[in-house]
């Protein structure tokens, strides 16, 4: 599987050119998109996630024309935005169960199994009955992963995941992420160089909407 981005450009209505002729080939595994605040990372992530349109260029993934076939993309996408909305006064286990119903898992015992496996995987099983509104930042991020994984995604986008996490939480989150890249295209957008060094097999650096550098993280980062 491969995500192909070709000559993507985007200018917002206020005149800010957030993406300038961006081209990237992203293969199965963990890909790091590294850049400072305002570089255009979220603009690119939101475009891939079908949440906003580009002015020019194309994106394809696994035979899907991403900019045109939005419904198809949403079926295979796991998206973790920087902040994913309000956290309701509902427990993790209940929300995952509801989401599993929406996903079409109608058999109750099958659903229970799927949900329990996700809660174990994300280390949230012991706090599964707590309201999400009371979760810490790290717990919320891990819940985001559980939610994203429920859809069995082929493409996962993670936007600035470790911002505001303490070192222990960051480690836990890293371990979780590194398992995801085995048969999925995972894009990790971050301004933290060490996140990319530790996790990614391939990367690009973006600044002011332009791709400055592509390659293997250890070589690319050391060449800066
Ligand atoms: P659109 O231009 O596509 O209608 P919005 O203006 O509604 O998009 O903004 C989409 C998202 O981008 C919102 O989360 C908003 O807070 C954020 N946003 C809006 N303007 C800026 C800006 N100048 N810099 C960074 N983020 C912004
Ligand atoms: P990053 O994720 O790397 O911080 P963004 O994609 O959020 O970068 O922002 C890139 C540039 O586009 C910034 O100058 C930002 O202020 C601007 N921007 C982002 N979203 C919007 C928006 N919805 N409307 C107007 N400008 C925006």
Highlighted features:
224 residues; alpha/beta; 4-stranded antiparallel beta sheet; globular; binds adenosine-5'-diphosphate
What do you see in this structure?
With 224 residues, the protein is α/β, with parallel strands linked by helices. The protein has helices at residues 41-48, 70-76, 92-102, 108-121, 137-150, 167-180, 193-199, 217-222, and strands at 2-11, 17-27, 29-34, 56-61, 64-65, 77-80, 155-159, 185-190, 202-207, 210-215. A hairpin with a 5-residue loop joins β1 (2-11) and β2 (17-27). The relative contact order is 0.20. The model has no long low-confidence stretch (mean pLDDT 91). Bound molecules: adenosine-5'-diphosphate (2 copies). One adenosine-5'-diphosphate (ADP) is lined by residues 12, 14, 16, 18, 35, 37-43.
The whole-number mean of residue pLDDT values reads 91
Terminal CA distance reads 29 Å
Element order: H for helix, E for strand = EEEHEEHEHHHEHEHEEH
Q: What overall geometry do the principal axes of the alpha carbons give?
A: globular
Radius of gyration: 18 Å
Pick out the low-confidence regions.
none
Total beta-strand segments:
10
Bound heterogens, unique: adenosine-5'-diphosphate
Summarize the amount of helix as a percent range. 25-40%
Our estimate of the beta-strand percent is 25-35%
Specify the structural class: alpha/beta
Query: What is the count of helical runs?
Result: 8
């Amino acid at each position: 599987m491969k995500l192909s981005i070709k000559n993507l450009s985007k200018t917002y209505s206020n005149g800010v050119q957030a993406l300038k002729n961006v081209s990237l080939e992203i293969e199965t595994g963990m890909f790091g998109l590294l850049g400072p605040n305002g570089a255009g990372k979220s603009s690119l992530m939101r475009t891939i996630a079908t949440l906003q349109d580009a002015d020019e260029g194309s994106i394809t993934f696994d035979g899907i024309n991403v900019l045109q076939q939005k419904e198809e993309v949403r079926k295979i996408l796991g998206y973790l935005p920087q902040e994913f909305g309000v956290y309701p006064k509902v427990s993790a286990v209940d929300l995952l169960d509801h989401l599993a119903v929406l996903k079409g898992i109608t058999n109750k015992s099958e659903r229970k199994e799927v949900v329990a496996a996700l809660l174990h995987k994300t280390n949230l099983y012991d706090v599964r009955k707590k309201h999400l509104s009371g979760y810490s930042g790290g717990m919320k991020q891990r819940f985001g992963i559980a939610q994203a994984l429920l859809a069995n995604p082929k493409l996962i986008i993670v936007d600035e995941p470790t911002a505001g996490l303490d070192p222990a939480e960051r480690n836990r989150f890293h371990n979780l992420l590194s398992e995801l890249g085995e048969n999925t295209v995972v894009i990790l957008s971050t301004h933290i160089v060490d996140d990319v060094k530790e996790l990614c097999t391939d990367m690009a650096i973006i600044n002011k909407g332009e791709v400055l550098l592509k390659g293997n993280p250890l070589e690319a980062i050391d060449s800066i």
